[in-house]
## 1
Amino acid sequence: MIHKVAAFYQFAALPDYRELREPLRAFCAGLALKGSVLLAQEGINGTIAGAVEAIDAFAHELAHGEMFGGRLNNLELKFSTAETTPFGRLKVRLKKEIVTLGDADADPTRQVGTYVDASEWNALISAPDTLLLDTRNAFEVAMGTFEGAVDPDIKSFGQFKDFAAEQLDPARHRRIAMFCTGGIRCEKASAHLLARGFAEVYHLKGGILKYLEEVPEAESRWRGECFVFDERVALGHGLRERDKGHGRDE
């Protein structure tokens, strides 16, 4: 059986997120879905897997069903496949933030960087006055990144604001292009930089996964593999699973 995998997020006001937990968990369990979903007042974030029909029903419920009442009508959603189930169980958790940065001024619902489609990304990062910034953790960067990208050398995304304060300057870095796995960390990171006075902040819409899905390998500026937080470990171009003979080091 081929398992369909959905990675999704949206920043949206969910003041009732605590009350949504059990209905969402029950709905996912009824479809035999496995994976992890985070709910917070600022939105939803998760990756789940299951049968093709079950994932399609889940995606429809988020965007169009009564549970969220149309509040997730701008969901960032990406699909891939796995030969075996990439998750052992289902978890629906409540969090303070759907991606933790710890900066109250970084509000993607109020201001966010300029989205750049995968088809336009190569042109942007080829410009000599563009600082290309990888916002992911060091172990993710070590597995793969874009040519010429700056590695902030952080252990967790919460350290990004310290890196920005110490290494980035609005007067010198006039144009910044950033990227992450699926796009969610860049939403917070770009909002943080804009709040600190950076003039031009761009980020890859849909993240590395969308780029690997859409950009032909012959035209790619990506080198290596993209780490994903499930049992597949990493994906390459076309969102193909990595060779199981080259697993993650313990």
## 2
Amino acid sequence: MEAIGQFVPLILIFAIMYFLLIRPQQKKAKEHAAMVQGLRRGDQVVTQGGLIGKVAKVKDDGEIEVEIAEGVKVRVVQSTIATVVSKTEPAK
């Protein structure tokens, strides 16, 4: 019985670590993945590198084309999009 009593604090520490660190990180990762999957042409985005631009084209291979200035388009890996500044309305 004493052996179990010695492990209770250790188990509590792992439970607290899970709820304070691991679970919120997993939730944030799921939200980011959903945001990246919801990208469409015309959305204004910010990359992790700090570039701000409009999505010109969404490709199937995990890349998007972002127009950072008029006539200047760069290829960006979808997962490097940090935030979506403004969403476009879906076509009806």
## 3
Amino acid sequence: MGKIMLEQDIKKILISHDEIVDAAKKLGQQLTKDYQDKNPIFVGILKGSVPFMAELIKHIDTHIELDFMLVSSYHGGTASSGVINVIKDIDQDITGRDILFVEDIIDTGQTLKNLCNLFKERNAASVKIATLLDKPEGRVVEIDADYTCFTIPNEFVVGYGLDYNENYRNIPYIGILKEEVYTK
């Protein structure tokens, strides 16, 4: 019963689970090549990145370390507030390390731009971004992902880690949320 309840709020499936897995496999192969012998730190941005990061790392065949940050910028709405609040920082010194931020979506770009600048100030050897979804129409700052699985239109999407008011993260695909759900 559970998922059927949630699926009633989905207008349309934008990206299927199989398409996400295939994209993660391809990206994992690319990251294996790009980070061979570098032992990068993959930094997942909580909470949305967890399903994508879990899928992605299964397909990487080189040494990597994992860490997580919890950064708040949405505060329960449908649009980023622009205020970035680091709630949980990573646990290690990144001086001279290769960093790959793993994100579920790049929308306004404000969060990642701030994080990239922060990690450059912390003397990371390199700072790159991998994202499941890129929504270029949402940008308010100049930033691009180094690795993008899917570019999507300016729709309100949920599932596979993406939420609306902390719900829908557990849907196994990317779906467009019905407008009546978030305009009530």
## 4
Amino acid sequence: MGGFASRSGSTCVRSRACDSIQAVNQPFSIGPVPVGSGQLFLIAGPCVIESEAHARKMADAIQRITADLGVPYIFKASYDKANRTSVTSFRGPGLVEGTRILKTIQQQHGLPVLTDVHEPGHCAVAAEGVDVLQIPAFLCRQTDLLVAAANTGRAVNVKKGQFVAPWDMQHAVGKLESTGNPRFFLTERGASFGYNNLVVDMRSLGIMRKMAPVVFDGTHSVQIPSGSNGVSGGQPEFIPLLTRAAVAAGVDGLFLEVHDNPAEAKSDGANALHLDRLRPLLENLLAIHAAAHG
């Protein structure tokens, strides 16, 4: 794949934007999970809290796999999916009950926990039960939300919008840095390519890694947004291919939505990784990571 080129043949504005980004990211920890240290970590869990029993079951199953493989692990699930395609789609248990469930998993499993927030007013409440507040891709430019999340003192994960160039994520980084909270990272989840389709430009991983540690979302990157009669479709068969490429490219962590029965999942089942496929995939990715860092 060639470099950036301008149509006029003059110096490319995008290349200058990339060159102007200064490497300022520093490693930090989220509980026992090192971020940006050179050790690959995993964020994984169901898209949404379907029930307390199911969330705890998934946390336990994934924790067993990651503990066996020595992979630092952060559990993730959403208390509310506010950006579902259809008004009739399942959204989750809500802020208060969802935060209680996530805090229970945090305490009883001894795991760092991540959830996404959609409104500034939710940040302080959610921060009581989780270690990482995630800014959804659609909201990555919302200044008040970014600032409110960072002001809680929790780590913040900002998903790059499908409509945002990787070099433009420096503006989101600037908003986080304005709060004095240095504990943040960025996640690539694909870019819009026409209607109902996403592609991943692997160059974005290196560009954004100049700003902060970078995570690759291997499941939302294979999503077919709103492409299945009111819900999003997906191509999960490409999860291994894209995650292998991302690990070889040097990402700090991986984000995977994992479910024990994707066909019956209440959100994003079409692009989720089946629980049975997590261990062999991680084994493969760890080998690639070791080779890439050898």
